Amino acid sequence: MRMRAPALTIRARLTLTYAGLFTLGGGALVLALTTAFYRLIFQPLPDNAIPSVLDPDHDHFIGLSDQIRDAAASHLLRIAMVLLLLVVAVSALVGWWVAGRMLRPIAAITAAARRANDTNLHERLDLPGPPDELKELGDTFDRMLERLDASFATQRRFVANASHELRTPLALTRTAVEVTLAKPTATEAQWRTMAADVAESTGRAQRLIDALLTLARSEQGVTDPQDDDLADLAAEALDRIAVRCRERDLRLEVELAPTPVRGNLTLLGSAVANLLENAVTYNRDGGLLRVVTAYGADTATDGESGGSGGSGGSGPGGNGGGDWVELTVSNDGPEIPADSVAELFEPFHRGRDTRRSDGAGDGTGLGLSIVRAVARAHGGRAEAVSRPGGGLTVTLRLQGR
């Protein structure tokens, strides 16, 4: 079995590269100097430098001179080679030190990556130095940690809120059962009341679980896309809330222009239904409910509408252009500060003063979160703007077919 040599570290490779390049350069320099030296000292004398009458000992002196020059050249070559070896050794040590200095930011990034977990993602490298490639790598790593920190914080908050929301109907169910069982002779009316309370709590838990499942599916992206019309989805959702609209005497204004769209019909239908149900739930009796669909070519840029709760970029409404479709739902209701509108898209955030006294506004708190997640899954976005005098205008914008 062949033993494989251990792989060299990048620091060792850089050091060997520095030393090899210096050796090649130094060797070429020594060779060039030696060649030039030999040519200079061994070239024949010019004719005007040769005496007309030679001394008897001329050949003896010439031979002795050649020996001296040969010895001097050989000695010079040996000294040059020794000096070259010394300089190569020193250059290797200096290269090792320089490589370590240059790679210190990478070592810091590696150490930070090893320490990173869900409890210390707030740490940042904040590498010093000029804006070079290593500095850019460190800043990119810091931005990645920032995104991970925000994602983990959102996940922890979501889990905590979901646990609290699920605990409430379960607690109501258990209380209703225990109170009824504690009575020695419970009447049929009391059993029926208990059954009604349990059914209501169970229905609330089921609605919350369904909303959580829809939110999870929408965050996984679009699967099995199909062609449909956003106006048809809005019309179907309006039919489902027609009875509630009549009960609350809402003023309906509907403009459903053809809006062809391609996507996951289940997710799109859920987003549209949540928009309309929220508009009814958090409306005032006799208030306005306006539903409009539109289709056109996108020439706008991001930032034209305030209170954005969706994703930007090159999707519909971004700088990328292209055909778009949108559904806009407006309602009357409690007045919402402009700086609090974006918070409504966070899971389980129902806003201030949005619960009605009769309990009809006690929803799951996931409606607009689902709308935003569905929009992002389809490359679109969701926006909300508070209306003067109260209420909200929410726009779901998607890429057209």
UniProtKB/TrEMBL annotation:
Q: Which UniProt keywords apply?
A: Kinase, Membrane, Phosphoprotein, Transferase, Transmembrane, Transmembrane helix, Two-component regulatory system
User: What PROSITE patterns does the database record attribute to this sequence?
Assistant: HAMP, HIS_KIN
**What subcellular compartments does it reside in?**
Cell membrane
- Sorted alphabetically, which Pfam families does this protein's record hold? HAMP, HATPase_c, HisKA
Q: Which residues form the Histidine kinase domain?
A: 161-401
Identify this protein by name.
Answer: histidine kinase
Stretches assigned to the HAMP domain: 100-153
- Gene3D superfamilies documented for this protein: 1.10.287.130, 6.10.340.10, Histidine kinase-like ATPase, C-terminal domain (3.30.565.10)
